[in-house]
Structures are given as C-alpha cells and as structure tokens.
Design goal:
15 strands, 291 residues, 4-stranded mixed β-sheet, 10 helices, 9-stranded mixed β-sheet, 31% helix, alpha/beta, globular
Length: 291
C-alpha cells in the first residue's frame, strides 16, 4: 500500500494562534501541511491538492521545500483559521475560506497515487462530487472527520454534523476523530461506534483523547487502547492530531506495524510536534501583510 504515493486533500491555511497572554503569531496550517509533511518525510510520494490565492502562493513554497508535489487550484482567497487558546479551552474562527476543491482537481492526480487522505477543515472545503467519486476508487481512503462535525456562523466554528458526512464515511476505510467529534456523530446518528463501523464498512476507527491517549476500534469490534507519549515541554498543540493520523497510516500500511505499535509510533511523533521539535515553528512561520 502507498507504493505509488498519497494525495492529501483540503485547505492549506494561514493560521493565527492567539493565546491568553496576548501573544499572537501566524503559521502555515491545515491537514495538507502537517500530514503532508509527515508523509513526505517518510519517503512517500506526496501530493497536496489545495486552493490558495495567488497573493499567498509563496506559502506553498514551504511545502515544495519538503519535496511535496503541490497541485494548487485557483481561488480568490486563502482559508484563514484562528485558534484562541485560554488554558485548556480553545475557540475557533474561520474568517476567510478558499474555493472548494473540485472533482477536476482530483482526477488530475488519481493515476499518480494509491492512497487519499481527506482532510477537510470545514464542510464545504471539498465538493461533494469528490466524495462520491472516491466511493468506487481503487485507492485506500483515509478520513480525518474534523471538517464534517463543524459549521460556521458569523465566521465562528460550532459543532454540528454535516450532510456530507455519510458520503465521506462510505468512501473511507480508515477514519480518525477526537473524542468530542465522535460523541457529536454518535448522538446525531443515534447509534454506537460498532454499529456505525458496520454500516459504513469502516475497517479501523481511531479516537484520540489528547494527553489521555485514545483507542482504535477494529471492524471485528476489538478495541486497542494506547497511551499518549510524554511531552517534556508544550510549545503548541496545533497540528499534533494531523501528524498522529499520518504517522499511524505510515505505521500500519508502510511499516506494516500492528495497531498498538502504530499507535505508539504515532503518539511519539505527535508528542514531538507538541514540543515544537518535529515540524518546527521556524519551518511553519509565515509573514502576513496587514490589510
């Protein structure tokens, strides 16, 4: 698996990290960044399918520097994402969004890859036609569910299940969610995780719980619990979940690890990201012109 390569699909973002100490800084973000770099650093042919405005195209050079093949479509704007941190509490805003990724962009890369990592940031990040086309694809489909359990009102992010979630679940074999995202889905669908996996034929469902670790549920209802790796010093947790998911996929389907070993490997790399020692702040930093 992943002998040809993988396409990571979603917004490449300009993130504004705002902390209660009144510090604020901009950095490159999105699943395309954190998961894309992780795949590429493991020697996997990596293609990022995204939409970034021409005025911001310089940020894509950071991905190209990581030997990532960037397939950028035209958009009048680039997705901007704001994270407001206050201790363990976080609120989020999306003041700008790029044009949705369309089917034509995906068709261009399908012959180059045998794996697809879906990383929508919000429900309209990827056109529904893309999801439908992947249902019958010969590629392995990996889904980070975060974009389908959000909606925005007045640019502020709130929890809600998207109408596009079923198509995404039908297409995917491996799915990742955090604990809150899973609760939102199960409550909305009025079901349990085993039944959800049976309905959509999901082979492995990864549930992350931050510093508490998490678990993986397999299609035969086995539950494998993993612990978080120790973090010596916390720099910024943004992107740690994206690094974890890509590292898990690499562990399972490139390094041929079992579920527990893949979880431990992913947890270790995720902890390094929180420490600022994997994809470093200097590598992610971007300059944003005011106005």
């Amino acid at each position: 698996m992943l002998e040809k390569g993988i396409a990571v699909i979603g917004s490449t973002t300009i993130d504004n990290i705002i902390k209660k100490e009144s510090t604020s800084y901009f950095k490159l973000g999105g699943v395309t960044t954190y998961s894309g770099i992780t795949y590429s650093r493991h020697g996997i042919g990596t293609h990022v399918v995204t939409n970034v405005a021409p005025r911001d195209s310089l940020i894509l050079k950071k991905l190209a520097k990581e030997k990532i093949n960037v397939h950028n479509g035209f958009s009048e704007d680039t997705t901007h994402f704001e994270n407001y941190f206050n201790g363990d509490d976080r609120s989020q805003r999306i003041p700008r969004t790029a044009k949705p990724i369309n089917l034509g962009q995906i068709i261009e890369v399908m012959d180059l890859i045998d794996g697809v990592h879906l990383g929508p940031l919000h429900p309209l990040d990827i056109e529904s036609a893309v999801l439908k086309s992947l249902i019958d694809s010969n590629s392995s489909i990996f889904l980070d569910i975060q974009g389908y359990v959000r909606y925005t009102r007045d640019n502020t992010v709130y929890p809600a299940v998207s109408q596009h979630l079923p198509d995404a679940l039908v297409a995917a074999q491996i799915v990742k969610a955090n604990e809150l995202e899973l609760k939102i889905i199960l409550r909305d669908c009025q079901t349990n995780l085993n039944a959800l996996m049976d309905k959509y034929n999901i082979k492995e469902f990864i549930v992350s719980r931050g510093e508490k670790g998490g678990f993986v549920k397999t299609l035969n209802a086995e539950e494998i619990v993993y612990e978080a790796a120790p973090v010596r010093t916390s720099d910024d947790s943004t992107g740690a979940g994206d690094v974890f998911f890509a590292a898990y996929i690499i562990g399972r389907f490139v390094k041929n690890k079992d579920v527990m070993d893949a979880c431990n490997y992913a947890a270790s790399l995720s902890a390094r990201q929180v420490e600022g020692m994997y994809i470093t702040p200097a590598e992610l930093g971007v300059y944003v012109r005011e106005g």
